[in-house]
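Meet today's protein:

…
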Amino acid sequence: MHPAERLSSPYAATGVHHGSSILFRPCSAGRIDDRRHLYKDFIEAASRLYTDAFEHDKADTSKLVNLYALVSRMRVRSSPRIVESAEFAA
């Protein structure tokens, strides 16, 4: 199964840390949609910045604010693996 298909699967789950173990509970369709939109927004923002970097020699750090705000939202809603990947891409 493709990773994107797993997000839309009714069997998608979120991990909840409880002591030394992680418990999994089913995700609601709304939460999956929220994450899907968040990831879409992140990919679009990162793509714009990537293109901007090729077009301009001078770095404009103010444009990074939106991207890092999206990564912060991912920290709340996504697994640590997803956040680590987003931080690497940003």
